[in-house]
Structure formats: C-alpha cells, structure tokens
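Quick review question:
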C-alpha cells in the first residue's frame, strides 16, 4: 500500500476502515470489495441445474437461453460445461460422444 499523496509506504489501518499515512497524515477510505462475482457464480449454478436436463440439444439454442441471464463469456463457458456433462452422463457411442464434444467446443468459440 502506498500513500496516494506522498508515496510513502509507512501506512496504518485505523479501526474506522481508513488508511493513514504516518509521514504526511493523509487519510483515505479502505476500498470495499466487489461481491458481484459471487452473485454470478450462484446464478451460473442455478442455470446449470435448470438446463442440465433441459430438452435443448445444441450449443446455439443453449447459448440463446443463457445469454438472457449471463454475459457472453460466462454463457459460453456454462454452455460448454452443460454439454460436456450431458455427454458424460449418457451412455453414447463413440460417434455420438464425438458429436457432443464438438458441439461443446463450438460453444467456446
């Protein structure tokens, strides 16, 4: 931690959640953590449970549904995860399995 005013590294944290520079006395608030990622992870877990057994069979349809709730990156990753989990749950022939894995790979592009 560096003082934004003088650059000193001699900093103290007060019980009021403020930093104080011992050199120049400048005070500034402790930044608050961003917990949005927790909400996103909970939403992804709920969507996984919702769509793991849904009748949606291909990446495009699944992505269209997930993009209503998530940003593009998270939707693609979750769609690929769902498709791969489906492939692992089912007893498929090698050809069918390959097709599902290819569809999952398309989701990541």
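Suggested answer, residue by residue:
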């Amino acid at each position: 931690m560096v003082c934004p005013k003088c650059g000193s590294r001699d900093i103290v944290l007060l019980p009021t959640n403020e930093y104080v520079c011992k050199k120049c006395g400048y005070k500034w608030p402790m930044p608050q953590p961003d917990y949005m990622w927790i909400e996103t992870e909970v939403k992804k877990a709920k969507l996984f449970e919702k769509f793991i057994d849904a009748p949606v069979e291909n990446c495009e349809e699944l992505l269209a549904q997930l993009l209503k709730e998530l940003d593009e990156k998270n939707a693609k990753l979750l769609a690929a995860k769902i498709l791969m989990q489906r492939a692992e749950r089912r007893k498929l022939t090698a050809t069918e399995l390959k097709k599902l894995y290819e569809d999952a790979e398309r989701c990541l592009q």
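Why it works: Residues 1-31 form one domain. Helices lie at 36-51, 59-66, 72-89, 94-107.
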